[in-house]
Design a protein that fits this description.
eight-stranded mixed sheet, six-stranded antiparallel sheet, alpha+beta, 47% helix
């Protein structure tokens, strides 16, 4: 049976696409779907192979091309391309191919019609590789000899320098280059151009871009002709055309037998639009139908003749700008507050655990506020997305926090109070209170009253609720014996985790209600101070809150100071601690001083989970390594003036001064009755903050229990060879761990799941993200995480910095940049500077002359603890750790929040 090398459009639609190449395959689809395509035929890839075989060079060509694998030297590529093209051009077209053309194309058409002869390479015009402009096309070819010659030239162009370099750059296969050749009737176009059914400049998938010029479209491809540029909406009739000076056109070269010639455009047509609006809309509709048939944006070549549009070819758009649409949802992310709990890169297990906890806790709070189950279920999307994980860092999803506030009365006041508590200093004006109609407001009244009643009734008995919460937590906490976890199986450990989850986080409403109480009362006290025009109201408010008794965030520091007191009375043990290696001290103390060892173990049991990064499950705590405890003890021992007595003295000093300032001011300006109300509000705020700090220790201990359980699961998975090392457990999500036990895992080879994830999260360590940014649409696609309010570049030479003063005092000292427990922790009165803190940093504070934190608010742990210890402090200093260098000398003012650089150290 004779092989048929030439196929018409109908025949082409019935054969394997490997015979057609990309361009002819697309023409077949266009024809089959009824689009107006000029009549065409195709010389199949079999014909191409036959031509090479006839020359006896098929194997030689393949061997030559293989030499180019990975080649980047353009001269080498060009040299081999020229060799191959020269060999292909040595012989005329194969007789069987010639006869196929003559039998497929009618004689009169072949003799009297102009044709375009184009390549159609296998893989060309594909989704990831368009090959646009890489191979040669020959237009207005008349007579069979011109067509035969053009076919040879097109075959040669499959191996030209551009095409080979494109394959190498795209990583495409060089071993099997096969080309078909399209023979298509030429349309002597009035207007021609290209249409992208997605806007290639803006990236909008809702708009098309049409480039149009007089004459044939080759003038656009070659860059000879200027074009009109029209952006047209796909789903409405908005049209925006930029008319350019079209001084040149490419048309049929009537003076010869084939090809094009460049001619000047008449003055009357140079600066008028090639297409009328109605024609643009007709072309837009054709393009949209083509794109819909492919279900992807298309790059379409078209022409207009006698008022009719012809489609010459189409290919998928292979590249669009990485920009999301202006109409996409805007999401606001901020970690000014939450970075205290989840600092730096956070592992998948910690994030998924925290996200699940937030969801459970706020879901329970909704129910407590009297919100119906129907509304709770309708808002699951909000509850599931209170947090986000971006480049390994945890952020608040601010949109959803504001949505939650809308269930409470007085959104505007609550919004301002929440922003103050979170340290959210950047404007989020696009999120406003929902404007309701009168009927909608009326309908919402019962819910608002329910929420208001629920909150107020619990505010009144907050102390009782806190006591009940702490007692209940202690009962749950005491029921788990860490020393016996190794006796449980993986399945039993997971069950234990689930039960603990239910016992703790489904009963966590008291801390949340108290947080609302702190937010409300903090805002209320702040407004009192603003009302009487107190200078530096933030600092004065912080001073009023200092010296509060019974705050557990300072208890670790006080416990360590008592331990120091013991060591100062026992010289031999003191010297051992000062001179010993931190990681080995606990074992040495156990054999030499059982009494002090008992104090150490008591501290670890009570506060062992309170460490830097304490809410990150992957953090190494004192339970795994006691080094940090001994590093702090050495710091304390180096300062002979540091004691419980000096600490207590500092705690009360500024509180008294602030009261002496504020009380007379309020009484003189607002009256004695207002002063009584202010004192009541201040007392409530003090109580609420004390309760908040004390319940946060329970949270720390809860996370410590979960950490111990997951570490044991990791130990056992490593023991059985399912993961490489125990701590790899932190690179699984909590859902993946549960699914592994329950038979729902999609990926059961945990080691192969973990390895690339560890690489990904390690890469995030190399760069930081701003504390606040916006995203549009899909968070991880086409978004640049940049601070939106940055008006000018960061000035690393800035001599003055500014933050929020938290505790008064002017300190002129060298600074120490400390970021983790692994850093050198010796402070000796120097100013501690860091990006963020959590309660685990508190034991470091007493040896600091001052504290400056890049991120945080006046209600941050660093601010609270600095107040209690009487240490001048400033928070919220943008780019602090990027501008200041370790050991440089500065002057800080804890009242105004101002920082002045005095001496920049050479010790970078």
């Amino acid at each position: 049976m004779t092989t048929k090398y030439i196929l018409d459009a109908v025949e082409a639609a019935q054969v394997d696409t490997d015979l057609l190449g990309g361009k002819a395959e697309n023409l077949a689809l266009l024809t089959r779907n009824g689009f107006t395509v000029p009549k065409w035929w195709v010389l199949t890839t079999q014909g191409f192979s036959t031509q090479l075989e006839q020359l006896g060079i098929k194997g030689w060509v393949e061997a030559k091309v293989k030499l180019l694998a990975g080649e980047k030297n353009n001269k080498v590529i060009a040299g081999i391309a020229q060799e191959i093209q020269a060999e292909i051009g040595k012989q005329q077209l194969n007789d069987e191919i010639i006869q196929g053309i003559r039998s497929s194309i009618p004689d009169d058409v072949l003799a009297n019609t102009s044709f375009a002869v184009r390549s159609s390479v296998v893989g060309e015009d594909a989704e990831g590789a368009s090959f646009a402009g890489q191979m040669d096309s020959y237009l207005y070819q008349s007579g069979e000899n011109a067509i035969f010659t053009s076919i040879i030239k097109v075959m040669q162009s499959a191996f030209n320098h551009r095409a080979l370099a494109y394959r190498i750059q795209k990583g495409l296969d060089l071993s099997d280059i096969r080309a078909a050749v399209i023979i298509q009737e030429m349309v002597d176009a009035d207007v021609a151009g290209v249409m992208f059914t997605a806007q290639p400049i803006t990236g909008s998938r809702q708009h098309a871009l049409i480039s149009s010029t007089w004459g044939c479209g080759e003038g656009i491809v070659s860059g000879i002709c200027n074009t009109d540029e029209t952006t047209v909406a796909l789903y409405n009739d908005d049209v925006d055309t930029i008319i350019n000076d079209k001084d040149t056109a490419l048309i049929f070269d009537a003076g010869g037998t084939h090809g094009t010639t460049e001619v000047p455009v008449d003055d009357g047509r140079r600066n008028i639009a090639c297409l009328e609006k109605q024609q643009i809309l007709v072309l837009r509709d054709i393009g949209l139908k083509i794109a819909e048939s492919y279900q992807m944006p298309q790059d379409i070549e078209w022409c207009l003749k006698g008022g009719h549009f012809y489609i010459l070819q189409t290919r998928p758009i292979t590249s669009l700008p990485p920009i999301n649409a202006a109409t996409d949802d805007v999401q606001v992310w901020d970690n000014s507050n939450i970075q205290e709990s989840y600092c730096g890169v956070t592992t998948p297990l910690t994030f998924s655990f925290a996200n699940r906890a937030y969801k459970h806790v706020y879901e329970q709070t909704f129910r407590l506020l009297g919100i119906s189950e129907k509304v709770v279920q309708e808002n699951q999307d909000m509850l599931n997305n209170m947090l986000g994980l971006i480049n390994g860092r945890v952020y608040y999803n601010i949109n959803n926090w504001y949505l939650g506030l809308q269930f409470l009365p007085s959104f505007k006041t609550n919004k301002a109070d929440m922003e103050r508590m979170m340290g959210l200093t950047d404007p989020v004006d696009m999120i406003q209170d929902k404007q309701l109609s009168f009927n909608e407001k009326l309908k919402k009244v019962p819910q608002i009253f329910k929420a208001l009643f629920a909150l107020l009734s619990r505010y009144r008995k907050m102390d009782t609720l806190v006591a009940e919460f702490r007692a209940r937590f202690q009962q749950v906490y005491s029921a788990i014996n860490r020393e016996q976890l190794h006796t449980l199986t993986i399945g039993q450990l997971i069950n234990k985790s689930k039960q603990l989850d239910a016992d703790i986080f489904l009963n966590w409403t008291s801390p949340i209600v108290n947080d609302f109480y702190v937010m409300t009362m903090n805002g209320k006290v702040h407004r009192w101070l603003e009302k009487v025009s107190v200078e530096y109201p933030d600092v004065v408010q912080n001073n009023l809150l200092s010296g509060e008794e019974g705050i557990e965030s300072t208890e670790p520091t006080k416990f360590l100071l008592r331990m120091c007191g013991y060591l100062r009375q026992h010289e031999e043990m003191k010297n051992l601690v000062l001179e010993g290696e931190n990681s080995k001290l606990l074992g040495l103390i156990q054999t030499r001083d059982p009494q002090f060892y008992s104090q150490c173990m008591d501290y670890i049991e009570r506060f062992g989970d309170r460490t830097i990064g304490e809410l990150k499950l992957e953090s190494i705590t004192l339970r795994q390594d006691s080094s940090f405890m001994f590093a702090i003890l050495k710091n304390f021992l180096a300062n002979p003036d540091l004691s419980l007595e000096s600490l207590a003295k500092n705690e009360s000093k500024f509180r008294k001064e602030a009261e002496e300032l504020v009380y007379p001011l309020i009484e003189s300006k607002l009256g004695r009755r207002s002063l009584r109300k202010f004192k009541i509000d201040l007392g409530k705020l003090r109580d609420a903050i004390r309760n908040r700090e004390n319940m946060r220790l329970a949270r720390t201990r809860a996370f410590g229990l979960f950490r111990s359980i997951y570490l044991e699961i990791g130990e056992q998975l490593a023991f059985y060879g399912k993961i490489d090392e125990p701590r790899d457990i932190f690179f699984l999500s909590i859902e993946e761990i549960y699914a592994y036990k329950e038979g729902r895992s999609i990926h059961t080879k945990l080691d192969t799941l973990i390895a690339p994830r560890k690489q990904e999260f390690a890469s995030y360590e190399d760069s930081d993200l701003p504390h606040h940014f916006w995203t549009k649409g899909a968070v991880y696609c086409n978004n640049v995480y940049e601070y939106p309010h940055q008006d000018e570049d960061l000035d690393l030479n800035s001599e003055h910095l500014k933050g929020t003063g938290c505790y008064p005092g002017v300190v002129e000292k060298n600074i120490r940049l400390i970021f983790s427990p692994d850093d050198e922790l010796s402070l000796d009165g120097q100013i501690l500077c860091t990006v963020r803190t959590d309660p685990g940093w508190a034991p470091l504070f007493p040896t600091a002359g001052g504290i400056i934190v890049e991120r945080g608010s006046t209600l941050s742990h660093s601010a609270v603890v600095a107040r209690e210890l009487g240490i001048p402090a400033i928070v919220g200093v943008p780019n602090l750790t990027k501008i200041l260098t370790d050991h440089e000398k500065i002057r800080m003012d804890g009242t105004s929040g101002k920082i002045e650089r005095i001496e920049v150290s050479d010790n970078d």
